[in-house]
Design a protein that fits this description.
By secondary structure, the protein is α/β, with parallel strands linked by helices. It has a single domain, classed as TIM Barrel (Alpha-Beta Barrel), CATH 3.20.20.70. Helix content is about 40%, strand content about 15%. It has an eight-stranded parallel barrel with strand order 3-4-7-8-9-10-12-13, surrounded by four helices. Helix 6 links the parallel strand 7 and strand 8. The two termini are about 25 Å apart. The chain binds flavin mononucleotide. The site of flavin mononucleotide has 28 residues, from strand 4, strand 6, strand 11 and helix 12. Flavin mononucleotide (FMN) binds next to strand 4, strand 6, strand 11 and helix 12.
């Protein structure tokens, strides 16, 4: 059916299509039995798919990557499409509007997207107030990022505010220090800046009764030396894992990197062209950490086979975003069926 709906959706500007989809999901809540029908169509349960990772029990290893449910409004609606978990956000301490539009571009021939959203979101407070009255039916990762208005020097305090407010409402945290669309954010991947952020958050966690795993989301554009430093820091700092990877700033991964792509301008590339690099990063981290670091693999998973390749490379869990846009609502089920074969 998505074969017929996709051309319609793709005839609308990508960001409008996204807003329309979110509104449609909200509208469906008011149609009796719609959730049941969606689950019947799109979920797939099998004991062999269950996973226990960083102390949490996942009903399956496939999650929605950050950026789709930016505000933490539709995680339960997404659970109807078979996801084992949803990463909400990136959320910042205060609401922010992001970069000027247009800021999302489809590259249909390559099953890819370029975006420079710039972490537009309604802020942590909005997500918390929604979650208070809408108990999640699946595992929720809270992806937090530095507010754009905050300098890198003050970043640790900014992350701390989001972390503290969100602590009681999510199952695990992801620290986004790798979005290429916020000026200077990727510089927080340097060890001094990272240590300051991680030390603050782990200290707060120590004083809480409940333990929340903390993961770091890295860029695919890091060198092996930079990855080595990060892996070492994670292993000694007591945080729980790594999300690999965010979008890439390079255009070299595209088959056709011509004038049309240049005209789009800055932004992070996701989808099919990113897969090879993300897989390489996942494999590298797994090997370098001797399998000790739980990895959530994300980047270019556009087929069920690619999800399996990520798991075979050492990932414990896999997330999708662009693949879901191109394949539609049955994508997670097709991956889960393939994995349980
Ligand atoms: C439109 C769009 C918005 C995104 N927003 C975020 C975000 O707010 N925070 C984040 O950590 N990653 C964000 N991402 C990156 C994704 O979570 C993911 O890491 C990346 O797209 C690679 O996965 P994919 O190839 O399956 O899309 C965004 C991606 C897209 C396409």
């Amino acid at each position: 059916m998505y074969r017929f709906i996709r051309p319609l959706l793709f005839s609308i500007l990508p960001e409008r299509a996204h807003i329309l989809t979110v509104n449609l999901l909200v509208f469906l809540r008011y149609i009796p039995f719609s959730g049941m029908v969606l689950r019947w169509l799109y979920s797939y349960n099998n004991k062999s798919l269950e996973r226990e990772v960083f102390g949490l029990k996942f009903r399956n290893p496939i999650g929605m990557a950050a950026g789709f449910d930016k505000n933490g409004d539709i995680y339960n609606d997404l659970s109807n499409f078979g996801f084992g978990f949803v990463e909400i956000g990136s959320l910042t301490h205060v609401e922010q509007i992001g970069n000027p539009r247009p800021r999302v571009f489809r590259i249909i021939e390559e099953n890819a997207i370029i975006n420079r959203m710039g972490i537009n979101n309604k802020g942590v407070k909005h997500a918390v107030s929604y979650m208070k009255s809408n108990k999640p039916r699946l595992i929720i990762g809270g992806n937090i990022s530095k507010s754009t208005s905050c300098s890198n020097e003050m970043a640790a305090l900014d992350y701390e505010k989001s972390f503290t407010q969100l602590y009681d409402f999510v199952d695990f945290f992801v620290l986004n220090v790798s979005c290429p669309n916020v000026k200077g954010l990727v510089k927080l991947q340097n060890i001094t800046a990272l240590s300051e952020i991680i030390d603050r958050l782990t200290a707060i966690r120590r004083f809480n009764d409940e333990y929340r795993p903390i993961l770091l989301k890295v860029s695919p554009d890091l060198t092996n030396d930079q990855l080595d430093e990060i892996i070492e820091l994670i292993l000694i700092s007591g945080i729980d894992g790594i999300v690999a990877t965010n979008t890439t700033s390079t255009r070299e991964l595209l088959k056709d990197n011509g004038a049309a792509i240049e005209a789009i301008g800055d932004g992070g590339l996701s989808g099919e062209p990113l897969f090879k690099r993300s897989l390489e990063v996942v494999r590298y981290i797994h090997k370098k950490s001797a399998g000790m670091l739980p990895i959530i693999a994300v980047g270019g998973v556009t087929t069920p086979e690619r999800a399996k390749e990520m798991l075979d490379a050492g990932a414990s869990l896999v997330e999708v975003y662009t693949g879901f846009i191109y394949n539609g609502p049955g994508f997670v089920k097709s991956i889960l069926k393939y994995l349980s074969k």
